[in-house]
Amino acid sequence: MTLRNLIKRAARYRGQLFAISVLALLSSVSMLAIPALAGMLLGDAITGSVMQGGVIAALLVGALLLTTVFTLASNVVTATSSARILADFRCEVFDHLSHLPLEFHDNSRQGDLIALATYEASRLSGFLTSTLANVPAMLATSLGATIALFLIDPMLAFVVPVLVPVFYLALKLLSLRLRKLAMRAREAEAEVYAVAESHLQMLMATKTFATEQEQAARYAEVVEESRRRALAAQHASAAIGPISGLIAGCAAIFIIAAAGTQLSGAQENPAELFAFLFYAALLTRPIGSLSSVYGQWQVAKGTLTRLEQVLQLPEESGYGESGMITEPRGAIAFENVRFSYPGRNGPIRDASLTIAPGEVLALIGENGCGKTTLLKLMLRLYDLESGRITFDGRDITTLDVRSLRRQVGYVPQRALLFNGTVRENLAFGYHGSEAPDFERALSLAQASAFVSALPDGLETVIGDNGVRLSGGQRQRIALARAIIADPPVLVFDEATSMWDLEGEAAFVESCRDALVGRTVLFITHRPASLALADRIVTVEGGECREIRPGPELAEILPIPVDDNSQYGISTGSK
Ligand SMILES: Nc1ncnc2c1ncn2[C@@H]1O[C@H](COP(=O)(O)OP(=O)(O)OP(=O)(O)O)[C@@H](O)[C@H]1O
Fold it and tell me: Per the database record, which ranges form the ABC transporter domain (predicted)?
């Protein structure tokens, strides 16, 4: 199964792999001439035939030159192809990972996936180009050397087949152990990536809790484990070459001894004796390499299995040509929606909710009741257990997910920014053909003042996750980004939770006009934002329930009734 997968995968690069094989073959063919010529040269030197010796020496230099040129060319093509294949593997793994459902990512370790897309992919490309493509040349050298030995002494015809099973058995025993060790080494290496990544992400917490020593100790622990496991695998792998070399060496001695009677006449023809010895020596090289190919194949098999495990996972459904949304209105309906995360019961049990185009709806409810989950379900980031969600009356499962998601400007609880300039971050979700209106979006998101105060304005680089900005500033950039995308539906998940009250009030004010005609869903408990809502819905016990203005709303809101009125919310108690 794995071999078939590898062949399928390698088929895409047959041109490059063929070129490597041919060059390596040519190199080994020219190399095969060397023992015969060297034998003749030595024989002539002993018998004193100087004239012929000059020609043979020239031929020998020619064979050496050819071998060097072909080996060089093969190495260059190997390096070029390996880099190409690695780049393709990386992109394929990355592309597949970004199309896998969120559920997969929720249950995976990022470090593990990064290891897969980087060093595991490089291992496989190396195996294909440096090892597999050289197998024909190794076989050709072994076969050529064996034939040459046969021609010199036919008695070997009986000796060589006897050696094959001995080789096979020794290799089988070694490689079984190697495969297990390589798998364990791979797991430990992935753990090193995972711990390093998590440590860097948690650096702020590490510093504020002053746990640098504990983190360093934890990292040293996984590094040590990885070192031990890698060493064990390398020892097993390193043993294969010398052990097979030893067997091959013993075999060469055995062959010489077995063919001793024939070679006793060597004094008359020393060229044959030398050629024979050189071919016997030449034979040990490809046999040693072929046996380490076997070991490397065991390691590559582990890598390939892991890659296939991920690459065979089905991508999110809904990526297709059909189900495009051409004239969005922004009507959304949840109909008896039920959804549970894997291994959990809930949080959404039977949620029904209808949102009209252009309506502004606030979702409230206690922590963990399922508000964010509802928004994610609307974006089809997870599949429902039962019920359905519609967009403009069409079941979202019949829509192209990209088309659906492009109708929605989603601002998550934690602003997701990357290490680029403010401008690049703002343009991240923009698909329009005209230049995006940065100024308007920044002004709506109350971000114009602070962005123009940044050292390079829009061109300021904001660091990983926008670390060089404050929490509220990050949220403003994330919000401006959603506005720039100009979608008919805007979804704000606690998007202003870090804003100062003044900024939030100004945002609400500017939204009154700017967001007219758009469907807006937002999760918030902040009165200023709630003031925007046409309706307020709470999520309770996995269901949605509308809250009418009145004492209930006053009870839910974490501020006095009088303060609510200041933001234009009617609690009905006056
Ligand atoms: N990826 C996940 N896998 C498993 N359970 C999850 C996942 N995401 C959320 N949950 C669980 O689902 C429940 C609802 O989470 P959700 O984020 O929707 O709550 P919320 O109402 O938005 O909460 P908050 O007000 O704290 O943001 C919680 O109990 C949470 O533990």
Answer: 332-566
